[in-house]
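Fold these two proteins, one after the other.
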Amino acid sequence: MTKNNIQKFREASRAYSDASIFMHEAIARKAGLSSTDHKYLGLILQYESITAGEISKLTGLTTGAVTGLIDRLEKKELLKRQFIKEDRRKVMIIPNTENSMKLLGPIFEELQQKTMKLVSTFSKKEIETIERYFREATLLMKETTDHLNTP
């Protein structure tokens, strides 16, 4: 790979990252959420249930910050706390997928359609290459995040 190719790749990657951040901030504003709450709601929605401690470990947020996040999202009825009968100190966070999709679904619908149209222009081999890049780059970013979050 030439120096020019590497530079072009870096520029494209940076532009993609910036556009993603700006888009998600706009989506969050449109949905009446902060960009942070929007992104962490997306994380929580990947689970049937999750504890506040698990959210803290996944995100690197303090337990106090996670409590504030849960409070804000619960107030908007996007999740609920469910106390465990056997141990009232333990609380499960249950995402309200239905309310979240009502809020965010219409915003993402057009984007998903346009994304699928774009993806359909790539060959199977190109899609596999792009997917491999995203998966491996994600692992690198997770490793960096874990390293930075380690005291």
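Now the second one:
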Amino acid sequence: MALSTSSVITLNINGEKRTLPVDHRTTLLDALREQLDLTGTKKGCDHGQCGACTVLLDGRRAVSCLQLAVAAEGREITTIEGVADGERLHPVQQAFLDFDGYQCGYCTPGQICSAIAVIEEHAAGWPSAVTADIRPEAGAPALTAEEIRERMSGNLCRCGAYVSIVQAVAQAAEAEARRTAGAADGELTA
């Protein structure tokens, strides 16, 4: 009896269930781009080294070129197409525009998805490789340029827009911290 090499799977992408047949060897990146026409996620190196294909899986960043589509079934997948709220840009997207955090734009979708996760990881108190005091009681480190560079180091920009990317992430993190503080104080958020 020969084993099947394909399956019909249902992926939860940007809040929408999408059912598709896939070969078991199909990466999430190829399923997104080739079968679902979600081409915002870019194919860069196809080896998990450049970060152009970064998406969010259950809120955590993942390089979709190394993730099999069948292994993503049942998980919440967010691509660049799903980060905005309708016509309203996500704060990270707006910060990238405000600071020119892109040049050719090819790496930008992956950079934005990574930055969203970086801000959440930092807010949760996760240390990075450059965090000086990693004791839980020390709390979250300041989100300095050095911290941002380290946390975003899995995303390469061939154009060299790193200075602007760091500024954009810092601005978006500050906006998120103000929003969170306002919500905790009982202020209405837009």
